[in-house]
Specification:
By secondary structure, the chain is α/β, with parallel strands linked by helices. The chain has one domain (about 5-295): TIM Barrel. Helix content is about 50%, strand content about 15%. The strands form two sheets. The chain has an eight-stranded parallel beta barrel.
Length: about 300
């Protein structure tokens, strides 16, 4: 089956599971939407790490391409020698917003004031820690210590009018002294100070169930990376794998999800990949919108 036929059949199958809950969300009816302020996929974003090879050659041209595809939000992973003011001017000219960025642990420890200033210029709401060294998960005590450090980052961000968050990989879903590090981080961080960006590929790859986490920790996941996975574990464009996005998005309100960033860590053709993923998600969104209009 070629890609276009696959996408059409995938969308048709997915919509059946997605439109009902989405209609309930739009009309304010239950279905677990206790926290979300918007319908799922109201805005579709892109983690720019996906197109880093293009960004390295042409920041402005790449952002223009992203906007032309239809994305309305981007999440940064570096500015590629541009200043925050230069990038903000480009974003404004293209009608893009940048609610979030990824920053390394060294920035949070030693350069947070500068990052906060840049965040204000760029219009960020969230400063996200994308990963931690394996030493952070050497023991349950180590995990608790990093959780406390996250609370400190969160307090500083909150004072500056921003929000601190942590992005998971599969490592946090493993076992450390009989405990799951991601659960320890969720339980030992203050919800008022620390949010989480759930990477759906890595959660599933690590053996986690997004719906179970949403149920156990409602409202803790304000952002997500929309990444797909084959049954054998290969990362693929969104809609070409087996992750049940309609079921996940149907619980967006319970999770607290507000921002959805498409990502692929190593696409063969970055421009084609981000376009394919966007069109799949847009099809889900449009179908849900039509169903909710009929229901109302």
């Amino acid at each position: 089956m070629d890609r276009r036929r696959f996408l059409r059949s995938s969308v048709a199958a997915a919509v059946a599971g997605f439109i009902g809950p989405a209609a309930g969300f739009a009309s304010g009816l239950g279905n677990g939407f206790a926290f979300g302020a918007r319908r799922p996929l109201d805005r579709i974003g892109l983690q720019l790490y996906t197109v880093r090879s293009l960004m390295a050659n042409d920041v402005e041209g790449t952002l223009s391409l992203v906007a032309a595809i239809g994305y309305s939000e981007v999440e940064f992973a570096g500015l590629f020698d541009r200043s925050p003011r230069q990038v903000r001017k480009t974003l404004d000219g293209l009608g893009l917003t940048a609610p979030a960025t990824h920053l390394g642990i060294g920035v949070f420890r030693d350069g947070l004031d500068e990052a906060i200033e840049a965040g204000h210029t760029l219009g960020h709401r969230f400063l996200i820690l994308p990963s931690l060294p394996r030493s952070a998960f050497a023991s349950t005590d180590a995990v608790r210590r990093i959780a406390e450090e996250m609370n400190g980052f969160g307090e500083r961000c909150r004072t500056a009018g921003l929000r601190f968050g942590f992005h998971n990989h599969a490592t946090e879903l493993g076992q450390v002294e009989g405990e799951v590090p991601l659960r320890l981080l969720l339980e030992h961080t203050d919800p008022a100070l620390v949010t989480f960006e759930v990477d759906l590929f890595w959660m599933v790859d690590g053996g986690g169930d997004p719906l179970a986490y949403f149920a156990a920790y409602p409202g803790r996941f304000e952002l997500c990376h929309v990444k797909d996975r084959t049954a054998s574990g290969e990362m693929v464009d969104v809609g070409a794998g087996v992750i049940d996005f309609p079921a996940i998005f149907a619980r967006a309100g319970r999770a607290g999800l507000e921002h959805y960033f498409v990502e692929h860590d190593d696409p063969k053709d970055p421009a084609d990949s981000v376009a394919t993923s966007f069109h799949y998600l847009r099809s889900l969104r449009e179908a849900a919108g039509k169903r909710s209009s009929v229901a109302s």
